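JOB MANIFEST
job_type = single_chain_structure
chain_count = 1
residues = 450
[input]
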Amino acid sequence: MDLRELLVELEQSGELAVVDKPVDRELEMARVIRAMGDRAVLFRNVRDSDVQVAANLCAQRQYLGLALNVPADRLLFVLAEALAHPVAPPIVGRAPCQQVIELTVDLDRLPVLTHQARDGGPYVTAGALITRDPQHGVNVAIHRLMQLDARSFAARLVENRGTHTAWTSAGDDLPVAICIGLPLHVLLAAAMSPEKGVNELHIAQALAPTPLVRCRTNDLLVPAESEWVLEGRLTQRTVAEGPFIDLTETYDIVRSQPVIEIDCVTHRRQAFYQALLPGLAEHKLLMGLPREPTIYAAVNQVCACHNVCLTAGGMNWLHAVVQIDKRGADDGMFAITAAFEGHRSLKHVVVVDLDVDPLNPAEVEWAIATRFQADRDLLIFRDRPSSSLDPSAEHVPGNKSRTAKMGLDATIPWVAPDGHERTLEERLEFRRVGYEPVDLDQYLDADAPS
């Protein structure tokens, strides 16, 4: 479903908060969104703009499941299937996103939020940037965009990723399209990191119907159900970008980043704008959830993986819990190594058995307390490439960030301290002992016969 259909569903279920009071896009709106927690919200009255703003649409797994028409606990497996089997979308001649075409560009009409007083400027945070690399083809990725004036943005490009590679190899202006107000399955696909040459829009089509339409001023294809499409060029001119809050809820550094010049704006009639609050639940879930299937696929290459959870405490990015069906003494260690290959930004990973819920932090900690020994079950990888989002890592401008990584095998140890391999019966002794259930109504109902 597109975002309009999702908003209707959320409103009918009572999940959508509607704000009719006038709200300022500079600082005030971000504070209201923060106060909403992870509840979806629609601002109908934005000061100095005739465009409504929706936010927190990706803040809960339940919202993403609703948008994809799947149970929230099945999202990992649906994403993994789409990643493994992308499908080419249909191309249409007419599309909702081109109901209005504006060749006179005025980005100030968009209610782009200023989130914090120290920010470098107003930022687009839920825009998917579409480019085409002559060697690797189409790339779709979510980039933060700092508005510079009524026609241009500064785009934060992560070094050696798809958009950055296309930009550095272009040598001249690179055609781009910025899509805002996308169906959530397209945002999820854009947040994935498939192998080079795999078009994220094909992953989106494998998740749900994603018709594409050709841009008006360049040859790029964009999702037909976008609310806004900003057509332009990623130039070779650079400016200072930032400061801005990142996934860690800390300020990222200021960098020299390229400028995007916008040549044309197309949009739906009465289009609304999608905002995404940096550093909080929506940002973390949208970034982290698409990495769970890549870890899942990598671990399944070496052992039987049943589930993956990028944890909230690790900002849905740096920490993972991997659940395996352990069939060999070393499967936990194999899973650790594979998990780091499945998500290169991962910093810490814990591997657990089938009887431990990877989504329950207390159960994971219990497994570490009862099954893990640091001198036997800990893997440390020193001086490895890491995420630029980790403020404690080593950051050298122009180079990949470096960090130490750690994996904990918190599965039942198959080898005893004396060196013998434990029998199945001995391994079962590590399982939690439960109590038989009872019907409390028999004990609490005063009228029940004794």
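[summary]
The chain has 14 helices and 23 strands.
Residues 286-428 form a domain with the UbiD C-terminal domain-like fold (CATH 3.40.1670.10).
exit_status = 0
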